[in-house]
Design brief:
Chain A: Belongs to the replication factor A protein 3 family. Chain A: Keywords: Nucleus. Chain A: It comes from Volvox africanus. The complex is a heterodimer of chains A (106) and B (645). Chain A is of the alpha+beta class. Chain A is built from 3 helices and 5 strands. Chain A has a 5-stranded mixed β-barrel. The two termini of chain A are 12 Å apart. Chain B folds into 4 domains: 190 residues, Nucleic acid-binding proteins (OB fold (Dihydrolipoamide Acetyltransferase, E2P), Beta Barrel); 112 residues, OB fold (Dihydrolipoamide Acetyltransferase, E2P) (Beta Barrel); 129 residues, Nucleic acid-binding proteins (OB fold (Dihydrolipoamide Acetyltransferase, E2P), Beta Barrel), CATH 2.40.50; 183 residues, Beta Barrel (OB fold (Dihydrolipoamide Acetyltransferase, E2P)). In chain B, strand 1 and strand 2 form a beta hairpin. With 645 residues, chain B is of the alpha+beta class. Chain B is extended. Chain B contains 12 helices and 31 strands. The chains are: A alpha+beta (106), B alpha+beta (645). At the A-B interface, helix 2 of A face helix 12 of B.
C-alpha cells in the first residue's frame, strides 16, 4: 500500500489527476457503462467502466481520475439512502485541511 | 619511600585499564560515608577525577582522620567498574601517602553551616558539599572554617584541620558562628554566604541528574503549609526561584528544611542552592510556567549568594497575543499580556464577602495586533497604578501586565493577581511596534473585537435560564464525570449536553414505582387493590413510572445517570407498565433490557450536588433524551471544529 487513496469531491479531485481516489456521490443517470453523478460539492462527473449495477441513490466509487470530469471506475459500493452528501462534503474538506490531513492521508 | 606525587593523566590510564606496578597516587576529596562502612570519594590525579569507593577496611583510617580530604593515597590494588556512563574506582588496598595539608583543594565551600543544630548533620552537609563539587575542577576556594572543637562528630572528615588553611582568620564574610553549636540559636542564624562561580541555568535542569547548583533570586516564598501525608503532618514550603536568564522554577522544601528556610529565606535575596532533585512539573499544582519543578532534599544545601545582584533576574515576560488568550482560560499558570490602551474603566471598589473590606478595582481594555481586545481587571494597588498617567491615553499608551489569570468571564477576560506587575509603555521593541502599528493602521478602539465575544460557552453577566445547556461546547461523559461536589456551587445544577450510549442497565435495581397517573406521585399499596398517595388520596389504577439508573458511556468515559419516566421510556422503548409486565411474566425482561443497550442518544445531563450521610456527592440525571439525529449532530460538531483554527 504505497499512496493512500484520498476521499475527494469535485474540487479536490483536480489535484489527484491520474491517481486513484474515492468518490462518494449521488447517482443522476445510469447509461450503458457510463454513470453521471453529482459530487459532494455539487460538481458533475461521469464514471466510466463500471460493470456491477448501480442501485439506489448513492454510491461510493473507487477509481482513477482520467480527466477533470471523468473517473475510470475500479470498483464501487452501493450506499443506502441514509446518507448526507453535505455532511460527507464537510468531512472531505476537513480531511484535506492542513491541520488534519496528517490524520487521514499520511 | 619516594615522595608521593600526583601524575596528571593517571586517571585516564586507570580508565583505560592500565596496570600500575607500583600503585597509583591520587588525591582524595569529597569523602562521604555510604552504607555499611564504605566511603565514597573523588580521586584526582591533579587534572582529572574519578569517583572512588573505599572499602570498609579503610573506614577506620577515615575515622581517625588519617585518611581525609586533601590527602594523597597510594592505591596498590583496585578495580574499575562502569556504572552507567561513569567510571568508579573500587579501592581494595591503599596507604596514605601524604596527609591532607596545605595543598590547594580544588573544591570550594568547605565552610560548615551552623544553622543545623546537630553537629552530625552539619558535617554531613559539608561532606555533601564537597562531594558534589568534585564535578568542577579548579573552583576557587572560599575561606574555610574548621568546626569548633566541641564537635563530637565521629564522621567529620578533616576534623583535624584538613585543608590546612588557618581557620577563622580568613572569614570576613562568613556568618558569625555561635560557639556552642549544640544549642539552636535564639534568632534564626542567617544562611552562610557562598562564593561559587559556576552555576547551572534553570533552563538546563532535568530529572536525570541530581548534582545541580543554581544561583537564583527568591522571587516568592509561599506561606509555610502543612499537609497530611499518611497520617503525619508534613510541613511544606513552596518557593519560586528566578535566575539571571529570566527563567522561573518552583521548588518545594519538606519537613524540617521547610520550617528552617521558611524563617531564614528572604524574598528578593539571591541564593545558591546545591543538590536537589528535579522532576516534571505537576501542572495541577504549579503556578509557574515551567517544564520541571524542584524537590529539595535533606542533602540540599542553601546559602546566600555573595553576589546579590538581581538586575538580570527579572522574570522573562512572555506575552500571549490577545487572540490566543481563550486557549488559556482556566489554566493555572498565569500569562503576560500587553496591548494598546483602548479604554479605561473608572476606579471602583468591590466589597469583599469575607470581611467586608473594600478592594480597589479598575478595568482597562487592551488591544493588540490581532485586532482583538481584552478587558484586564486590575486589583488593589495595581488599580491605582499609573492612574494619573493613564488618563486620556487611549490609543497612545501601551500597558503590560504580567502574571494575570485568564477567565471565561464574558467569554474571555483577564484578571490581575498579587504578583502581577503593571508597566506603562514598557521598554523594548514590542511595545513601540504596537504603538506604531496602531497609529499607522489608523486603528481606533471600536475597530477591535472583544476576544470573548464569539467564544463558545460564554459565561456572561446575565445567564438567566440555567436549564439551557450550552450546546456551543463539546461535552463528553468525561466532563460529566469530572463534575465534583466542589465544582458545583451550593445546589446549583450543571447542564451538559452529550452524545452517549446506554452501556448497561442494572437489572437488580428497582426500576419503577407505582404512581398516580394524573400527577406522577407515588402511591402505596393499601391492600385489597387500593392504592393511596402520601396524603391519603385513593388512586384506582396506578401506573408504573420509571426511575431508572443507567450507565452511559461514550468514547471518553462513563457516567451513571438517572432517567425518569419520559426519558426512560425513550431509552427502553417500552412504557414502564409494559416492562413491569415482562418482568412479572419472567421472560423477555432481560431481552428488553439488552435491546436498550448500545444505541446512541443525545442526552442533556443535569448534575447536582447532594448530601448523603454527611457526604457531598454529585448526582446525574437525564434532563432530556433525544434520538440522535446524526446529521444535525454532525453539523454541530463541524461548527465546533471550525472554532479550533
Amino acid at each position: 500500500m504505497d499512496d493512500p487513496t484520498p476521499r475527494v469531491n469535485f474540487e479536490i479531485m483536480q489535484r489527484y489527476h491520474g491517481r486513484k481516489v474515492i468518490l462518494c456521490c449521488q447517482i443522476n443517470q445510469v447509461d450503458n457503462g457510463q454513470v453521471r453523478v453529482v459530487t459532494p460539492d455539487k460538481g458533475e462527473v461521469t464514471v466510466v467502466g463500471g460493470t456491477a449495477p448501480y442501485e439506489g441513490r448513492f454510491a461510493e466509487v473507487v477509481g482513477t481520475v482520467i480527466n477533470p470530469n471523468t473517473v475510470q471506475e475500479i470498483e464501487h459500493t452501493n450506499l443506502s439512502d441514509n446518507f448526507s452528501l453535505d455532511m460527507y462534503n464537510e468531512l472531505v474538506k476537513l480531511s484535506h485541511k492542513d491541520a488534519y490531513i496528517g490524520m487521514f492521508y499520511a | 619511600m619516594a615522595t608521593a606525587t600526583l601524575t596528571p593523566g593517571d586517571v585516564l590510564r586507570i580508565k583505560e585499564k592500565h596496570d600500575f606496578a607500583n600503585g597509583v597516587v591520587l588525591r582524595v576529596s569529597g569523602l562521604q560515608e555510604v552504607n555499611g562502612r564504605k566511603h565514597r570519594c573523588i580521586l584526582s590525579d591533579g587534572s582529572a577525577n574519578i569517583r572512588g569507593i573505599l572499602a570498609s577496611q579503610f573506614a577506620d583510617l577515615v575515622g581517625s582522620g588519617e585518611l581525609s580530604n586533601g590527602c594523597l593515597v597510594k592505591i596498590k590494588t583496585f578495580v574499575t567498574n562502569s556504572v552507567g556512563n561513569e567510571d568508579v574506582l573500587l579501592v581494595t588496598d591503599l596507604t596514605v601517602a601524604a596527609p591532607g595539608n596545605g595543598s590547594q583543594p580544588m573544591e570550594a565551600d568547605i565552610a560548615l553551616t551552623c544553622h543545623n543544630a546537630t553537629p552530625e548533620a552539619s558535617s554531613k552537609l559539608a561532606e555533601g558539599k564537597t562531594a558534589g563539587l568534585g564535578h568542577w575542577a579548579k573552583e576557587n576556594s572560599t575561606p574555610m572554617l574548621s568546626p569548633p572543637t566541641d564537635f563530637k562528630a565521629n564522621k567529620t572528615p578533616g576534623q583535624s584541620g584538613p585543608t590546612g588553611r588557618t581557620p577563622m582568620s580568613l572569614t570576613p564574610m562568613v556568618t558569625p558562628l555561635s560557639i556552642s553549636m549544640e544549642k539552636t540559636s535564639l534568632t534564626p542564624p542567617s544562611l552562610r554566604i557562598s562564593d561559587r562561580k559556576s552555576y547551572h541555568k534553570i533552563a538546563q535542569l532535568h530529572p536525570y541528574d541530581s548534582n545541580w547548583c543554581i544561583k537564583a533570586k527568591l522571587e516568592r516564598k509561599a506561606p509555610l503549609r502543612s499537609m497530611n501525608i499518611r497520617g503525619s503532618d508534613v510541613k511544606i514550603l513552596t518557593v519560586d526561584l528566578l535566575d539571571d536568564t529570566g527563567q522561573m522554577v518552583q521548588g518545594t522544601f519538606w519537613r524540617g528544611a521547610a520550617e528552617r528556610f521558611a524563617e531564614q529565606m528572604v524574598e528578593g535575596k539571591v541564593y545558591v542552592i546545591h543538590k536537589f532533585k528535579v522532576k516534571p512539573a505537576d501542572k495541577k499544582y504549579s503556578s509557574v510556567k515551567a517544564d520541571y519543578q524542584i524537590d529539595f532534599t535533606d542533602s540540599t544545601d542553601v546559602s546566600e549568594a555573595a553576589d546579590q545582584d538581581t538586575s538580570a533576574m527579572n522574570a522573562a515576560v512572555e506575552i500571549t497575543p490577545i487572540d490566543l488568550l481563550p486557549r488559556r482560560v482556566g489554566a493555572r499558570a498565569p500569562v503576560d499580556v500587553m496591548g494598546v490602551v483602548l479604554a479605561l474603566g473608572s476606579l471602583g471598589t468591590v466589597k469583599r464577602k469575607a470581611d467586608s473590606s473594600e478592594l480597589p478595582r479598575r478595568d482597562v481594555t487592551l488591544g493588540d495586533m490581532s485586532c482583538k481586545s481584552v478587558v484586564v481587571t486590575l486589583w488593589g494597588d495595581n488599580a491605582h497604578a499609573f492612574a494619573a498617567q493613564l488618563e486620556g491615553q487611549e490609543g497612545k499608551a501601551v500597558l503590560q501586565v504580567t502574571h494575570v489569570r485568564v477567565t471565561d468571564f464574558n467569554g474571555c477576560s483577564v484578571s490581575s493577581l498579587t504578583k502581577s506587575v503593571v508597566t506603562l509603555n514598557p521598554a523594548g521593541h514590542a511595545a513601540t511596534q504596537l504603538l506604531t502599528w496602531y497609529s499607522t493602521a489608523d486603528m481606533s478602539p471600536d475597530r477591535f473585537t472583544p476576544v470573548g465575544q464569539d467564544l463558545p460557552g460564554t459565561r456572561g453577566i446575565s445567564n438567566g435560564n440555567g436549564a439551557v445547556p450550552s450546546r456551543e461546547r463539546f461535552f463528553t461523559l468525561k466532563d460529566v464525570a469530572g463534575v465534583t461536589p466542589e465544582s458545583l456551587l451550593d445546589d446549583k445544577a450543571n447542564f451538559q449536553a452529550v452524545t452517549a450510549c446506554v452501556a448497561m442497565i442494572n437489572s437488580e435495581q428497582q426500576m419503577y414505582y407505582l404512581a398516580n397517573p394524573e400527577n406522577g406521585r407515588k402511591v402505596v399499596d393499601q391492600g385489597g387493590g387500593q392504592y393511596a398517595e402520601a396524603d391519603g388520596r385513593v388512586v384506582e389504577r396506578p401506573e408504573h413510572r420509571y426511575v431508572l439508573s443507567v450507565k452511559l458511556a461514550d468514547h471518553t468515559g462513563e457516567a451513571v445517570v438517572q432517567l425518569f419516566n419520559k426519558e426512560a421510556e425513550a431509552v427502553v422503548g417500552l412504557k414502564a407498565d409494559e416492562l413491569a409486565a415482562l418482568k412479572d411474566a419472567g421472560s423477555g425482561f432481560a431481552a428488553a433490557l439488552r435491546a436498550a443497550q448500545w444505541r446512541p442518544w443525545s442526552v442533556v445531563v443535569m448534575s447536582k450536588a447532594r448530601e448523603y450521610n454527611g457526604e457531598r456527592r454529585v448526582r446525574h440525571t437525564a434532563h432530556k433524551v433525544d434520538t440522535l439525529d446524526w446529521v444535525t449532530e454532525g453539523q454541530r460538531l463541524i461548527a465546533l471544529i471550525g472554532k479550533y483554527h
